[in-house]
């Protein structure tokens, strides 16, 4: 069935797989499979974990998808399937490897059955496909998580903007807009080590340092968005990723700081679909 495809979302700490009916723009109920993973494990263990999650989703429907499209953060040679992630605290063991071929062998498939696509572009495509930006023609999208993903629309297509490495403050944008910034900054303020933003929210919400770190993040995000908007001139922004789940602590302040720089209120929306946006966007990719 050519209309049934698999969308896969690979992040710094998880993998999610979902079968999708592209004609209906709907997920296949019961095919959702999500697992946490150690992105600092060996290459073989990472590939095995990916394959196990994909196989679990396939077994749920008893029908093999026409293709498997995998949304993955960069840098990467997406066409060849060669991982180029290095120095980002994740997937170091995969650097320089053809993970497309490795995964195909592990699944018993031809490498032509598997496509790797950019995760931020997939996220924005999903939101345009069936999400909060359904009627917007010019937009930019951010995935806020272990790293920073950026994408934009151009001539009706969605493309990776690759602004994670844009010079920003005393480093690059991802140094200030990512989970690792929260971990580093909260430790600098308090001497306390948190695992991620969820840990920060669950165990430190309401403390003075909690409020301070989110306020600083709001300012940094607004400054970055201002630069991004000036480059691509979109009509709206959509934000997703794990950090977006903590929107109540930063999004209104981000909008306010951005409006003060723009001189008017600019639409900054949180994803309606969440992780499903990336899965739908990946599945819809050719």
TrEMBL record:
Q: Which family does it belong to?
A: Belongs to the ROK (NagC/XylR) family.
> Known InterPro entries for this protein?
ATPase_NBD (IPR043129), ROK (IPR000600)
What name goes with this protein? ROK family protein
Q: Which organism is it from?
A: Pedobacter psychrodurus
From which domain of life does this come?
A: Bacteria
Q: Which PANTHER family match?
A: BIFUNCTIONAL UDP-N-ACETYLGLUCOSAMINE 2-EPIMERASE_N-ACETYLMANNOSAMINE KINASE, ROK (REPRESSOR, ORF, KINASE) FAMILY
Q: Organism classification, top ranks?
A: Bacteria, Pseudomonadati, Bacteroidota, Sphingobacteriia, Sphingobacteriales
């Amino acid at each position: 069935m050519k209309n049934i495809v698999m969308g896969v979302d690979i992040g710094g700490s998880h993998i999610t797989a979902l079968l999708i009916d592209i004609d209906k723009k709907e997920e296949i109920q019961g095919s959702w499979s999500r697992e946490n993973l150690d992105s600092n494990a060996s290459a073989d263990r990472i590939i095995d974990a990916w394959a196990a999650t994909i196989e679990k989703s396939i077994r749920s429907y008893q029908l093999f998808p026409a293709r498997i499209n995998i949304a993955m953060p960069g840098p990467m040679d997406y066409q060849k399937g060669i991982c180029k992630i290095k120095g980002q605290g994740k997937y170091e063991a995969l650097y320089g490897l053809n993970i497309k071929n490795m995964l195909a062998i592990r699944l018993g498939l031809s490498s032509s059955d598997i496509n790797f696509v950019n995760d931020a572009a997939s996220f924005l495509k999903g939101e345009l496909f069936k999400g909060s930006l359904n009627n917007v023609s010019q937009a930019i999208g951010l995935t806020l998580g272990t790293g920073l993903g950026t994408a934009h629309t151009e001539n009706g297509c969605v493309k990776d903007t690759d602004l994670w490495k844009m010079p920003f403050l005393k480093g690059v944008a991802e140094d200030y807009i990512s989970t690792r910034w929260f971990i580093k900054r909260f430790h600098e303020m308090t001497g306390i080590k948190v695992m991620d933003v969820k840990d920060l929210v669950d165990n430190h919400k309401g403390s003075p340092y909690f409020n301070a770190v989110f306020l600083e993040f709001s300012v940094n995000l607004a400054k970055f968005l201002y630069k991004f908007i000036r480059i691509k001139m979109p009509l709206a922004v959509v934000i997703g990723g794990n950090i977006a789940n903590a929107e109540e602590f930063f999004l209104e302040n981000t909008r306010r700081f951005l409006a003060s720089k723009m001189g008017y209120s600019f639409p900054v929306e949180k994803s309606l679909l969440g992780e499903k946006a990336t899965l739908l966007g990946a599945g819809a990719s050719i």
